[in-house]
Specification:
binds norvaline, alpha/beta, five-stranded parallel beta sheet, binds phosphoric acid mono(formamide)ester
Amino acid sequence: MAGNLKGRSFLKLIDFTPGEIGDLLSLSATLKANKRAGVTGRALAGKNIALIFEKASTRTRCAFVTACVDEGAHPEYLGKGDIQFGKKETVADTARVLGRMFDGIQFRGFSQQVVETLAQYSGVPVWNGLTDDWHPTQVLADLMTMQEEFGALKGLSLAYVGDGRNNMANELMVGCAKMGMHVRIVAPKALFPKAELVETVRAIAAQTGGQVTITDDVAAGVAGAHALYTDVWASMGEEAKIPERIAQLKAYKITRAMMAATGRDDTIFLHCLPAFHNHDTDLARQFPDICEVEDEVFEGPRSRVFDEAENRVHTIKAVMVATLGR
Ligand code: CP
Ligand code: NVA
């Protein structure tokens, strides 16, 4: 299972075939069942894993750490400011040094080019834990969550409602299209995904039987959707844009009315988290209109956000085991 991925880096889903993504999802399900049964593995025994974080993280960091420990690896957290990375030493030099000491490297940060450079120079598998452009380990967990809910991915519709230009919108378009789904990006025109990426994703969908819709019309965009997905309106590094994004995206907040507008009673709500859904955070107190989802939907019976968060660890473990494990 997924044995053909040994030695590969995991930088963005566009680099993987539908079959490879399917194998990673199967391995994730096996590892989840094992963990539930109390069976821990030794697939990463003796491996040292570097976890580089330029941006904050709860789920991704904790999923990598717990997945490493579950499979016998040693995780080493290297936070922003802890290492010379990019300041006093080139990314290529740090990559070559870390590659002599570690067996695998996770990177979360701003530039996709940095994670690609790490993969090019380190000589070990590199895993992208989020960049400005892509978030592949998250979308693997999202696909797993939908597969658990609906059985199969092919033919499902997912409507992503919100900032259509961010890492989540980009990666969901690719991941859903690869698995033969109908992916819809529902956003104001100013936040539509890049035309070049839409073209690429349409070409993928043409191969897999998937479909791609980009629209600013909420009613048309969500009709028939099996999943409504959203993300924060301003991503990490875009905090200065919060007032502008609130004005642009107010009409795209996920509400109970929008869930009902899918016309299905089995639509699930998904969110990569962290989410603004009430006013119990500093930023939500400062910007009362910042919430991208109504609290009643987030806390409601169709919300699967914490299954999705749990699935981060099983999918991240699968990526490490498939690319590095014995
Ligand atoms: N979804 C996600 O990547 O969460 P963190 O930012 O907490 O890692
Ligand atoms: N788009 C968000 C995703 C967080 C998991 C961000 O980049 O901040």
